[in-house]
Batch of 2 targets.
Target 1
Amino acid sequence: MKRTSEDGQSKLPDNTALKQQQLPAYRLQLSATGVLSCFFATGVFCLGMGIILILSAKSIKEIEIKYTKICGNCAKLREDATNFDKECTCSIPFYLSETMQGNVYMYYKLYGFYQNLYRYILSRSNSQLVGTDLKDVGNCAPFSKSHDGTPIAPCGAIANSIFNDTIILSYKLNSSIPIKVPMLRSGITWWTDKYVKFQNPSSINLSSAFAGTTKPPCWAKPVYELDGEDPGNNGFLNDDFIVWMRTAAFPTFKKLYRRLNRIQYFIEGLPAGNYSFNITYNFPVTRFKGEKSVVLSTLTWSGGSSLFLGLVYTVTGAVTWLASFSMMAVHLTLKDRKVLFIQQ
Amino acid sequence: MGWQQSLQESDVSKVRTIYLNEPLRNSFCKNVISTAKYSMWSFLPRYLYLQFSKGANAFFLFITILQQIPDVSPMGKYTTLSPLMIILIISGIKEIVEDYKRHMADELVNTKTTIVLRENAWKTIMWKEVNVGDIVKASNGQFLPADMVLISSSEPQVTCYVATSNLDGETNLKIRQALLATAEMQTEKQLSSLSGKIECEGPNRHFNTFTGTLYLNGESPVPIGPDQVLLRGTQLKNTQWILGIVVYTGFETKFMQNSIKLPLKRSNVEKVTNVQILVLFWLLLAMSLVSCVGAIVWHEWYGEGIWYFRTKDYSSLSFGFDLLVFIILYHNLIPISLLVTLEIVKYVQAMFINWDEDMHYKGNNVYAMARTSNLNEELGQVKYLFSDKTGTLTCNIMTFKKCTIAGIIYGNFGYSESSPFFLSLSPSVISECCEFNDPELLQNFENGHPTKNYITEFLTLLCVCHTVVPERDGKNIIYQASSPDEAALVKGVKKLGFVFTTRTPTTVTVEAMGENLTFEILNILEFSSNRKRMSVIVRTPTGNIRLYCKGADTVIYERLSENSRFKKETLSHLEYFAKEGLRTLCVAYADLTEKDYQQWLREYKKASTVIQDRMQSLEECYNHIEKKFLLLGATAIEDRLQARVPETITTLLKANIRIWVLTGDKQETAINIAYSCKLIAAHMPRIQLNANSFEATKQAVAQNCEALGTRIGKENDLALITDGETLKYALHSEIKRSFLNLALSCRAVLCCRLSPLQKAEIVDLVKKHVGAITLAIGDGANDVGMIQMAHVGVGISGNEGMLATNNSDYAIAQFSYLEKLLLVHGAWNHFRVTKCILYCFYKNVVLYIIELWFSFVNGFSGQIIFEHWCISLYNVIFTSLPPLTLGIFEQCCSQKSLLIYPQLYRISQAGNTFNTKVFWFQCLNALVHSFILFWMPMKMLENDMVLQGGYTTDFLFLGNFIYTYVVVTVCLKAGLETQSWNKFSHLAIWGSIIIWLVFFAIYSFLWPTIPIAPEMAGQVNMVLACPHFWLGFFIVPIVCLILNLIWKSIRNTCNRTLLEDIREMESSRAQGLHPPTIFKRRYFHTVHDFPKLIKCMPNRHLELHIPSSTGSYSVTPASPKVLLSVDGNFILLVS
């Protein structure tokens, strides 16, 4: 009791605006004019943006071909895991009615493949992929070690289930022999993945670097032999591998596969005409009731199709306008109203 | 009734025996005190125990433990532990700082030195080494180290003076006197040879009681009473030295016994919040179960074909495992930071109350003090105010104004005391110039009026019959009195020439008209609230034995002898005094014969050595001699109303607060005060309940209820006046209910002559049966019961000691400060706390329900969409500031408006801003927002081609989109909730968004340099470079908030409240526009008054806010808004 009185005296308050709760403050008052002008401005902005986005979405040329049913034989073959060593190819001709201007990108798209399962995402070793510790397979269950106990590189369920179809696009110029459309398999990954997150273990050559490890059970070739054409595209630095390792958010997703090398006939993009996809069908999807497709697409300033955003902007703009008009109507009828308090 | 119980419990504590000079036989507790909560070693376990006994913290501890199970946590092992640690550390630091201060103060006290007799010599030792049975020597000005029995002192008559202001706040000195049996014990030798024992009651918390007996070897036992006891915490004054035997030490001293912690009160908002947390917990379980079922269904559907991931066989074991996964996944639905946020917010709010200059009483430099911060928001919800009268509504500065002697009334009838001249003066000046001043009395005295003898006797009585101690300060005499009434009387008669000059323990000397008269005091029969009187038995200078008594009229009148005169006249004068609002005391005397007195004295001695229930037996004994009085007259003392009391009461009534005055004073006085403070208007009909039997009470209550008819239960312009006697029956369980109904139907309730217990009972009755928030305000020890009983207890730190203040939740210096405390601090704090709570829930639901939405697309596998640490830092960093600024700085409207329009208080009072409905509406709003915040980015990214260069993205890319949008939306939502933006609001809202973006940028570059967050590596460059991100950055929060904005605008326009109008007025005033005209305090009783109004504002539509109780004209109550067309030009919207 003594103490509190002493305390009280030593802490005499002073008369500042903060302590007297008199700090200058702006009172947020939803006044009619404020709200209305804000709504009008928002409406105009949204409608404008919406129209721009819808127009740019319309300018995108996109073609998607689902090939699970078309290559039904192959799909059936892959349902049985024991047929893994039997090759199955499938050719899908199609006609491109309009030229695809500019850069063209080729994607594969999977339906019903859950890359976002908790334990699936968990099943990888980032320290292995960055090349520091090849033997660190702790999180990779159930694909961490082979039967004889050798660590798997790259370990884990994600790496094991890599998309392993080969898709080759060929163009039939003047109905003669088809020519292979030149495609680039580099530059399809995020910069940080290629240069920071994924690194091969340092050694004289790749095969010795991966000595003491074994390939994932579903893989046909070890990681250091993924790309026979470009030796730099092997090991953990293989672009297709890196792309696959970024696990998608939804069960239906696209992954960038190739981009058009704009040379020869293809400087302008993909000309209209007859094309065909030659697919080596390896990746089983019918077992999980899924589908596969291949997508060719151009991009605009905002990346891919922004139709949804365009619609959202337009609808929001329209709704705000509608709201502001109706509020203005109400406001005008009540404009002259004044408030009078009568106190008893 | 915890307060009463604890009193009774400590009453039956054990008797203790203290052996003199035998230190080994006295083993009691040490004299070390510790007011600290923790010691160095006990801190961690005790603190953790206290924290984890809170439900929410225990829940998060449970989650943390769950997360340690390998693989069960989708969010890592330490993501709940870390914010929990941060929160525990923050409140731990607060505890340590507070406890450190206590330790320092304790240490200071424990190491003070005192002189003690050890091994036949005086030794200087520290306070903590003092033991029971030690003989302590203290000198002038020193504080006493323990409770002790006075043995001897330097003063004649072995007296000493002590200042007890530390204990009871009373500023007067108290006199203590040692027993004659020990008075000569002064040298070391005498003291060391002392042998015998002291028997006394066990430790208790009553300052003014002590019963003990001293047994000295070879002598007869001597009783020891409170007069011989010196308490720890008191200070020795005007005395060179004293010697005392220690009886209670350390925690057993009365001082420490009184510092026992009060029971914790919880606010209404807190209770509602706890219930919602519990509901949310069940919701969390439900969500987890649904997700588990979802997982089973998904496995049924897909489980077979998932070749890319060998799933385990689905069994009951994994069902349980999944349940834990989902509980961890959704656990953040319960806001982890809510408790600590509220703690900080309320702490600052309490500081605002302490700092408030408007509640600073310059008179004695006292600031308002929030002794607890738990109840800040409860201040905004008070519906029933229970006020003490004396010292609360009035100043408790007594002035002797009038008297009646032998049937003749004296007193100044001059100028009116309520003139503005007096109000502007300081209280001390008023008390000087308004004192008793009637030349007639002196004339009558000097001129040998027939009543001269009565006048002499009357004035002598006032000089002798009291417990005032005179202190000489040069020529002046300062009177030290524990009762302000007594001081007023003694001062009053001093002016009339009867000066009380000296008091020794056995005598009182009076200078009566220049002549020194010495009265031998034989006995003092103390005042108690039960007895309502005090008497002294004296031997007059002429050698007669006489008993002087003064007390309440009822107790005196029933003890008057048959041949007492002036009964009737005095009674009518008493009524007159009471009507004036004066406090009255009757004075009477009785002559005793030597024989009667000696007989009574034996009885008295017997009663005074009883150890158990000594007070009771003494009172009985007193009763035997207090009889056959002869009436002399009565005194009237004025107790002035405090400044601004009528205005405050008017304001509080407008704020829809019902005011009940509960007083121990007389009915007439109370009614008078109620009039003068405008609680009761002159035209107000009164219901008086005064009955003296159960049947009569029952009948009166029933009769009045019947008379009210249908108006019962509604607020009527009535005043109910009742007294303690009637209440004794009215609070009987049988008619309690109907009495309460009757009381609730009245605008003002006045209960007089109540005992402290009855005050508490009434508060309890309203609290239990009405379910509204109650506030009790008082200043004296008799108000402690109701202060503790009410939801909010307010103590007035005034003249009547510290007891009320020490038991209160808020202490203020003046009744009028209640206006600011309730209308401004209460209303603001209520808005702030509720907004803060709602917002905390909102932001958590928004973020964490997204996990549920994501579960629908990831096969209920338990994957989270955000990065672990982002999730756990959400509450402690990225969105921690907006709730703080909402809780600390938010203002619904300015202080000025709140005070000018007390009607605004009704908003917080009704609690419409925070109840189950509002809570779940807010949760629903959060649910909608979270859905938009998940669905829109999902649709945006569904296409997977959102980046220049055609790169595809991953799940965390989506997560970062959503997370950023959530932070932006949630911060802007706080902005939308903030009605008063100051610099801190800007800092919090924009700062939080910026902090997240900066964190995001830094965090994405850590891997692999620092082995943390590999999945975040490179996210920031891709996310910020993505045009879709920025397109969504604008539109997603807008889509979320535009719904709220439209909703708000609609509500503002269609269902406009007073608050909106006032806010609009304020903002237009701030912008320098002409504010809408507001007519204040104008009375329009009938429809015929409208033309007057119309003249004021031609060609305008008028909206009238008319209180529903006006009702002088008929508007169908069924439709709240009615269009009244008065004439062609006007439309009246009547609500």
Note: Chain B touches chain A through 135 residues (CB under 8 Å).
Target 2
Amino acid sequence: MEDDAPVIYGLEFQARALTPQTAETDAIRFLVGTQSLRYDNQIHIIDFDDENNIINKNVLLHQVGEIWHISASPADKGVLATCYNKTSDGKVVTCAAVWRMPKELESGSHESPDDSSSNTQTLELLCHLDNTAHGNMACVMWEPMGDGKKIISLADNNILLWDLQESSTKAVLSSSSALEGKGQLRFTSGRWSPHHNCTQIATANDTTVRGWDTRSMRQIYSIENAHGQLVRDLDFNPNKQYYLASCGDDCKVKFWDTRNVTEPVKTLEEHSHWVWNVRYNHSHDQLILTGSSDSRVILSNMVSISSEPFGHMVDDDELSDQEEQHQEEKIFVYRPFRIKEPLQDSVIATYEEHEDSVYAVEWSSADPWLFASLSYDGRLVINRVPRALKYHILL
Amino acid sequence: MAEVEAAGSGTETGGGSESGNATGSGSGWRRPHGPLQRYYGPSAAEAAEATPDPADINGPHFDPEVFLTKVRSECRLGELLSREATLGREIRALDSDMQTLLYENYNKFISATDTIRKMKVDFRRMEAEMDDLASNMAAISASSARVSAALQDRHRRGAQLAGVQALLRKLQSLVEVPGRLRRWAAPGADPARALHCYARARAVLRHYRHLPSFRAIEDESHSIMAELAQRLRARLRDDTLDPKELTECVEMLLQLEEPPEELCEEFLSQAGARLEAELAALEAELPPSDPSGTASTPPPASDILDFVDRGSSAFVSNLCLLAASYRSLFEGRPGSGDGRLEAFASTLTTRYFELLERRLALERGLGDTSLLVRALDRFHRRLRALLELLPAAGAEAGAALVARAARERVARYLRALQTFFLGCLGDVRQALAAPRPPGKDGPGLPDLLATLSSSVLGQLKAVLAYVQLFTARDVAFASLPYFKGEFCVEAVREGLVVAFVRWLCRTARGFADSPAERGAPAAPPALLLLLARLCLDYEATTISYILTLTDEQFPPEVGQLFEEGVRRAQSSDSSRRAFSVYSSSRAPGRYAPSYTPSAPMDTHLLSNIQKLFSERIDIFSPVEFNKVSVLTGIIKISLKTLLECVRLRTLGRFGLQQVQVDGHYLQLYLWRFAADERVVQGLLDEVAASAAHRCLDPVPMEHSVVELICERG
């Protein structure tokens, strides 16, 4: 079987919530939350067997409501948080809760998929994030690389920082901040920066991107009119502390240096409809993944603004070690291994396996060359970075 | 030289003497040794001596011994002799050269020595003279110092006297002031100089007024100036002053410190009187205003352009002049800044406008429109110049006046068109009723119709061309917002073209409807036929032709800049409706699976199957530059946005029904703007399916009700 072919998995329900199992670094595992107003919603645990190109799934029931956002704990494989809609007497409220999955599913199951679907198991509720005073929950972020005890949730115009205590069975609101301004302000999404000792987050509301310090809960920068229309998603460069990517309804993906926010560093305009998701690869930050409601997933190589050395660079240390004595000959030495064609910023691939709007794309936490995308019709597609590019980056 | 050579030979080596002997003896047996020796000898010597050649007679290393040896050993006797002769000649030449040089230079040296000697003598004499000069100069400077000390006192006294004299002269001129003032201030003399003089003397007089004699002078000049002021005032009231004199007069009065408010008043009333006179002169040309309007007024003496010309050159330019001089005279003085000038000017301009309006009203006939346009243009330009000086003088009134005149003219053209049409009809009737000579057919109905319609159309075109003059690019008022927009649409398109067509219809119907009840003869049937045919033609082609013509001649709309694109499915409105009725029969089926709980995946399956057969829709696809393509792009973006928004909502029952109605409405009306109606259909289907999914209580509205609502809209 050809190695680069995509693997497709279909859910029965519509879905827009996807996350890798962050704490798992060995197996490739994704969690998908479904959206159905009339049936019990589910969380699918998708295991991908890289060697055999086979998908194993386990289904957990999530009976409280349809899932709008899902995120996994970075410390405990079994813990995850969801934002879901609850309907009570004609009113719809979005709540958030922290859950634990059954122990035997944490590291995947090796049962045959048919059996596991027949006897579905249920999530164990750890705690609710009480939002009665704060409004609808837009998303929940875990402290990156933390011990899984700190989370931040965005509810309408509030940023809420929670401490999870007593093995996550109790959520205590430790601090909060509200965005004040004209009109009804609502956060659409946010990301927690892995840099600066995890003291910064970025949020998006309307066309503005804002940075916050989690210690003082104060705004530290603001990118007004970051996009012409609504900003849909953000992501931090995992290797360059001041770099931030954003995407929005103007079909663009923009890259920002948060020290100078007057102009984006780069802008990509490859999609033909709203861009819902943008993700940096966790290790090779030149690889950018974007998903859009034009039903496409685009993988771009933004090498010029990545942490990778760009262009022609000869390492001087190496030189001095090996060639100190051979200074004269240096000019005539042919070194094929050092001359590497510099890559240009470019679109590497456009993936067209989806037939409906793609609302989520995520890199695997275990394999840096693998990613999943989820479209509204419930189709999950697992793809790999093209092998040629992979070798180019590695070698 | 021979001796020298001989003496040299004594010191020669053995080989050398041998050769000498051989030469001397003349025996030839040893001769072969000569060349050998010559060959070896010098070369050996040269090797020892290294590079400098001692044998070179002109070289620095010349050694006579070596030279001699060399010559003697190398040359034969003949050669030696000839060389001796040459050398002797050269030496003589050198000697003589040296002598010449010596003589020449000796002479020069002698003369130089002479000169130096002479100089020495001269200088000795000069030194003595210089000493004399120095002592003389000392004596001169001493005596000069003495003289100046002696004269100093006198000089001071002289300067004092000069000062006194200047003062006396000033006093004299001061004393003379009243006389001069009287002379210049006398009627007909030069009051400006008097003023100048008075202004200069006034400060001094005021300063010294505590001295009785000066007081007298001041009083006297004061009274003179008061008299002058009175005369000037009297002059101010004189009607014959032209504006320039008036300004001068007021300026002088201001200098005399007369109260500016009064002057301002006087100035305005004086100027007002003049302007009034000009307006009156203009009015005199107009016939007395006749409120009844029945009397047939005689045609005005001059044409409208002439009238406006005169008005603007006399009245408007004088008003400009007046405003300018008022500004320069009274700017910053108390009692002038309270809009007095503005009020004054606006009453006058209002009157002017009235006059112009009355004059315009006299333009009864159709006259020469270009003349009218030019007159209005001139009026407008002049008015603009005035408005720059006086912004409050009634800009709107002026613009309104022009607009009114233009509208009036258009209305008149409409009446003219109507009259023309009636006239044509009259001709037709006559032609129909005329007795025909037997055997000869009169003009056929088609001919009559063609004549009628072509002459009416021609007339209409001519009228449009005339009206277009109002919006010509070189006409200043065409840039007014009224002429850019409302005039074209309201006055020309609606008020002239459309109104004419309506009237034509009414008239034609009038012929058909009115029986002979009023005693008028009923219209002959042939005429009715002809009119009917005319109306039919108008409906089919003429009206749209006329309107297009109008729209083209007057500013075109944006839409006309783009060509129509190609539509893939061009169905007519009615067939579309028929189709929608057909499709409605299966429309409810689309919702059916969503409320059968037993089959949760059916909708999903259905939509997927639908997608299998539909192409992917590129939302932001490239757009061509034609209307349809642009509109299709907009529609796709809008519908996709609607879809995404619906998917983000949770709908109740009525929300779903609202989306259902909206979708149906869009389905009915949107297709005609899109290049491919399948795109619209596909997107609307997706919206409907998503709405059903996002609905908590999916009870769709009865389809007939949906249709009813949409039809009513």
Note: Chain B has a mean pLDDT of 74.
